[in-house]
Amino acid sequence: MNWSIILYDNSDTSCFLVEEVMRTWGEKVLSQIEEVSIDMTGNYKSLVKKISPNAEVTVDRFHVTKMIHEELNQARIEQKIVAKSLNAKKRAKLFDSLKGSKYTLLRAEEKLFEQQKIKLKEVNSAYPLIKIMHSLKEEFDALFEKSKDWGEGTLRLIDWLKKASSYYHKSVKIITRWFAEIIGYFERRTTNGIVEGINHKLKLLKRCGFGLRNFNNIEMRALLFWHFPKSLAH
User: Where is the Transposase IS204/IS1001/IS1096/IS1165 DDE domain (predicted)?
Assistant: First the structure.
């Protein structure tokens, strides 16, 4: 397998640099790419269709899950705002239920510690809306983990969208728009996991980057993480 590593000193997330690098691979390589996993930002879908017309585009499932988590957390924040309008006694009780609940709600329920399970029961008891949204979040995670094939995964996602439409307004709209690319996951189980791992290491390098005065030094240090020769950098 051939690898090409793209490292660039630029906060611009446009597709131009990615296209420039991929063009160097040549038409033969680009035409043989079978699948590309992307998130739902930028114009990467259009880029893939333009330079690798034979490739199937799959949306990374973890970016979709992140979107669900963000909407659930936003609902949690909004419930805190609503609680401020209540009398002092009720407000204190509701605030106490939500205190420290963010990661309890976002973490997979089966992985919760005992204290977090108690906190989850408190939140569910105090906030019926959060209880429903949390249940839908768990169901969404499960359909990706447990669906055996494309058909089952597609049907379960359609069912989830129907149930979630009154609660996850933003996420349901985006998932519907990207539906074909999202259900592509159920065919080959392709994700951006490797890329996210690389990003994590680069962020670690950035935090520890005292004394690295120019981009060349950062580039060399990054390549050492994976023992790649500098000739692979672009």
Answer: 20-221
Instruction: Report the SS3 class of residue 58.
Output: strand
In angstroms, rounded to a whole number, what is the distance separating the alpha carbons of residues 182 and 193? 15
Residue range 170-186, pLDDT digits in tens: 999 999 999 999 999 99
Residues 6+ apart with CB under 8 A from 232: 3, 4, 5, 223
> What is the distance between the alpha carbons of residues 150 and 137, in angstroms, rounded to a whole number?
20
Contact, 35 vs 188, CB < 8 A?
Answer: yes
Q: How confident is the model at residue 10 (pLDDT cuts 50, 70, 90)?
A: very low
Q: Report H helices in the chain.
A: 16-23, 27-32, 44-51, 61-83, 88-98, 102-106, 114-126, 128-146, 150-164, 169-177, 179-183, 185-188, 193-207, 215-226
Which of 14, 20, 37 is CA-nearest to residue 6? 20
Q: What is the pLDDT of residue 112?
A: 96
- Residue 201 in this model has a pLDDT that exceeds 80: no
Say how far apart CA 94 and CA 116 lie, in whole Å. Answer: 17
pLDDT digits (tens, 9 = 90+) for 208-228: 766 667 777 777 777 776 665
CA distance 130 to 104: 12
Nearest to 2 by CA among 29, 31, 42, 38: 29
CA atoms of 179 and 170, how far apart (whole Å): 14
